[in-house]
Inverse folding.
């Protein structure tokens, strides 16, 4: 089945540790996105990539890093510089051309031990 | 980053009632989207609106793209238990290949037995 796969579903991090969240899509979409969701708030954009080997900061990029070496993969690293990393992280992708709706994975919940 | 004003924040209704929620913004959008999110999952696209004044239905759901391009509403008729969840509006602005999707803060729908 075509879709967006995020893994793991749940992730625990010790303070001072970097962790990487996986996002893979087999929809042949060019653009991919990472959002953070906190209780009672909407989704906030962390990073996005419109094409392989290129990515842009979103509204809350500090403490995060990404790479886009392959079209189907857009991993997000939550670094130790992110002081409040506990949240629900959502990956999305959308087809080209622009103006199309984004479709989401099922999310990864990150918690601090 | 900007977030849309979505209201109400929460709704408690009885099964069979109709539901109405809306989003307003100070900015103009090219596209309005409505998503539904179940607990622990990613948002699922319900309706996409592409033209000012457009009225679109998807089963018991009806959404409209405001004529000013600064607002949208979603109606659900004859609610059923599986309608429970959080509903998000999202506005998309697309200029010369640069796109930005802004989310509302969500409307939590609860059905009272």
């Amino acid at each position: 089945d075509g879709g967006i796969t995020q893994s793991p579903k749940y992730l625990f991090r010790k303070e001072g540790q970097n962790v990487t969240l996986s996002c893979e899509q087999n929809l042949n979409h060019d653009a991919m996105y990472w959002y953070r969701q906190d209780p009672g708030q909407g989704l906030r954009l962390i990073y996005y990539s419109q094409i392989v080997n290129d990515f842009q900061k979103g509204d809350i990029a500090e403490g995060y890093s990404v790479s886009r070496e392959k079209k189907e993969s857009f991993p997000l690293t939550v670094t130790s510089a992110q002081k409040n990393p506990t949240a629900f992280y959502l990956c999305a992708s959308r087809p080209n051309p622009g103006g199309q709706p984004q479709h989401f994975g099922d999310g990864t919940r990150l918690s601090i031990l | 980053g900007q977030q849309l004003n979505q209201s109400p924040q929460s709704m408690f209704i009885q099964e069979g009632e109709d539901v109405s929620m809306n989003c307003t913004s100070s900015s103009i959008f090219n596209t309005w989207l409505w998503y539904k999110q179940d607990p622990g999952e990613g948002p699922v696209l319900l309706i996409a609106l592409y033209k000012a004044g457009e009225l679109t239905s998807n089963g018991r759901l009806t959404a409209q793209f405001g004529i000013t391009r600064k607002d949208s509403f979603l109606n659900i008729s004859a609610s059923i238990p599986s309608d429970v969840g959080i509903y998000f509006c999202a506005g998309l602005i697309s200029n010369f290949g640069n796109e930005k999707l802004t989310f509302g803060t969500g409307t939590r729908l609860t059905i009272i037995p």
The two ends of chain B are 38 Å apart (CA to CA). The mean pLDDT of chain B is 93. Chain B touches chain A through 27 residues (CB under 8 Å).
